[in-house]
Specification:
Layout: H1 3-10, H2 13-24, E1 27-28, H3 29-33, H4 40-52, E2 56-61, E3 64-69, H5 75-103
Antiparallel strand pairs: 1-3, 2-3
Length: 104
């Protein structure tokens, strides 16, 4: 999945909130739904999208599914951020140099 596709998946505030909650602990869909004003089928759809994007994984225990963050799924986002992290320091240094020249 491309970084653009992952950004589309994370554009939904509910999916971002679910991912945030899973960053701390492994939870079931019922536990994840607590605090959200959405139905169980809606939560299942959000989880399916996050699973399809490779951002979360599922572990079955009896009739319960436990969800957790899949760190490898975040690799495209990490790579995208790393590209821009390398870009900004040199730009800021150039801006500092320009401002020093303007002060003189």
């Amino acid at each position: 999945m491309s970084d653009t596709d992952i950004f589309k998946v994370l554009a939904d505030p509910t999916r971002r909130a679910v991912l945030e909650r899973l960053a701390d602990d492994e939870l079931t869909a019922t536990q994840l739904r607590e605090g959200f004003a959405i139905s169980q089928p809606a939560m299942s759809q959000h989880l399916a999208v996050l699973r399809g994007a490779g951002l979360i994984s599922e572990r079955r225990e009896g009739r319960f599914a436990h969800y957790r963050v899949a760190p490898d799924g975040l690799a495209p986002l990490h790579a995208w951020i790393a590209r821009y992290r390398a870009f900004w320091p040199s730009r800021i240094d150039n801006l500092k140099d320009l401002l020093k020249e303007m002060d003189q």
